[in-house]
Structure formats: C-alpha cells, structure tokens
Amino acid sequence: MSSYTSIFVAGTDTGVGKTHVTCRILRRLREQGINAAGAKPVASGMQSVNGEWLNEDIQAICEAAGSQFGPELINQYRYKPYIAPHIAAAERGETIDMGVIMDGFRRLAARAELVVVEGAGGLMTPLNEQHTFLHLMRRLNLPVILVVAIRLGCINHALLAQQGLESAGIPLLAWVANYPAADTVRDIAVEESLGSRLNAPLLGVIPWSSASVNVEMADLVRLIASHEND
Ligand SMILES: Nc1ncnc2c1ncn2[C@@H]1O[C@H](COP(=O)(O)OP(=O)(O)O)[C@@H](O)[C@H]1O
Ligand SMILES: [Mg+2]
C-alpha cells in the first residue's frame, strides 16, 4: 500500500484555479519522484480540436502527469456544454453514478502512488439528485486542498467551504491562495484574514504566472505522508 494519501483539490467556485493548482501539485510530486496520477472524474465543457472533442481540464491533467494516464482512466463523465454537470447529464438522459466514479478512482489508484482528484465547480456542485461533490469527497475518504482565488468575496466563500467540509467530516489538509487574474496585486490583508480563520496550513501563494514557472509551495510530500486516513 502507498505511504502517501491521495488528495482532493476543491475550490471555492469555478474558475478559481483548481486545474492550475492540480497540475502544479502533479508536476511537483512527479519531479520529486512520486508516481502521482491526476483525476477529473466529472468535466463539463468541451471544444472541437481538429475534429476531436476535448475538455481542457482533462487534457491539462493528463499532460501534467506525464501523459501516462489517459483520458479514459482519469475521467468517467464528460459533457460538451459549459453547464452544471448534473444538468448536462440529464440532457443526455443519464445520471452521474458515484459508484462508477469510485471504481474509476480505484483503477487509477492501483496504477499510481497517489491520485490528485480535481472536483468541478465548488463543494456543493451537484452530481445528481441526491449527491454533491461533498458526498464524493466523503465516499473517497480523501483530505482536501482548498483553492481560494484571492478576490473580493473570497473570505466568505472560503469560510463557507470550511464549514461545509467540517460538517461533512472531511479533513482540510491545506489551502492555497491563488491569483488567477493577470492584473491582481497581492493582498496580504486578505491572505492573513484567511490564514487566521482557516484551520489548515497554507500550501502556497500562487501568483499569476505561467504554469511552467516554479512557485514556492510548502512541503507537500510531508503533508501527504503525515496525513492518516481514518
Ligand atoms: N496562478 C495562476 N496564474 C495564471 N493563470 C491562472 C492561475 N490560476 C488560474 N489561472 C487561469 O485562470 C483560469 C481558471 O483557472 P482554472 O485552473 O481552470 O480554474 P478551475 O479549475 O477552478 O475552474 C484558467 O485559464 C487558468 O489557466
Ligand atoms: Mg478546472
């Protein structure tokens, strides 16, 4: 059995930088010699590229993990429209089944030392009529890395996310202060307000930068090695 825990990368919203951070984490772990796989079990929004329908997140995550885990392995449900996944699923006459996602996760986890799973939208994004991503995190029994986009409103969003995780009994492993917009000035007061209220260490402050630029991150390996799943 692997000595590292898999992790779930959740965000306070869509567009906060979950994929950006997931890919950074994957690259960092793989640079450190850890066979980390990425997963994007549910994705909505696809573009036609040379006649092939592709989802950006799935592509980015495949690439960040060295392309050794293909789209079929890292994703179970993908939809063309840029809309909430449970609505996209219903339009196709299907229902997203957590069991199918769990099976996919196990298949991937068997081939890797750990899996970094990216959610879709926020914590309460529905999967189907009964379940949200919070249920999936609970079922997967994974600790969460919460990506917060530093902008007006983010403190409220981050604290609501923390409360949601706490009430579902899901551990918050770390949080990330991400700057997804080009013209944003670093806001130390907001970072400190978050830091003193979120009950988890800061993994890193990610400035607006190209994915290939290295940024400071706390010792992720130590975090994922020290976490004990219940
Ligand atoms: N730190 C960053 N630096 C530069 N671009 C970023 C950063 N974080 C996010 N982005 C960009 O912002 C957009 C939204 O980020 P993304 O990771 O796709 O968010 P999410 O997965 O939460 O929807 C993408 O175009 C992404 O490349
Ligand atoms: Mg994404």
Keywords, separated by commas or semicolons:
single chain, Rossmann fold, 230 residues, 6-stranded parallel sheet, two-stranded parallel sheet, alpha/beta, binds adenosine-5'-diphosphate, 10 strands, binds magnesium ion, 37% helix
Bound molecules: adenosine-5'-diphosphate, magnesium ion
**Strand count:** 10
Structural category is alpha/beta
Give the low-confidence spans: none
Biggest β-sheet strands, sense, barrel: 6 strands, parallel
Distance between the termini: 15 Å
Radius of gyration: 17 Å
> Average pLDDT across residues?
96
Instruction: Estimate the strand proportion.
Output: 15-25%
The CATH topology annotation reads as Rossmann fold
Helices, strands, pairings?
Elements: E1 7-11, H1 18-31, E2 36-39, E3 42-44, E4 47-49, E5 52-54, H2 56-64, H3 71-74, E6 77-79, H4 85-91, H5 98-109, E7 114-118, H6 133-140, E8 144-149, H7 154-168, E9 172-178, H8 188-197, E10 202-206, H9 220-226
Parallel strand pairs: 1-7, 1-8, 2-7, 3-6, 8-9, 9-10
Antiparallel strand pairs: 4-5
The site of adenosine-5'-diphosphate has 14 residues, from α1.
Can you characterise this structure?
It is a single chain. The protein contains 9 helices and 10 strands. It has 230 residues and is of the alpha/beta class. It has a single domain (7-226), classed as P-loop containing nucleotide triphosphate hydrolases (Rossmann fold). Strand 8, helix 7 (154-168) and strand 9 form a beta-alpha-beta unit. Helix 1 packs parallel to helix 2 (56-64). The protein is globular and about 45 Å long. The two termini are 15 Å apart. 42% of the residues are buried. The mean pLDDT is 96. Residues 18-19, 57, 118 line the site of magnesium ion.
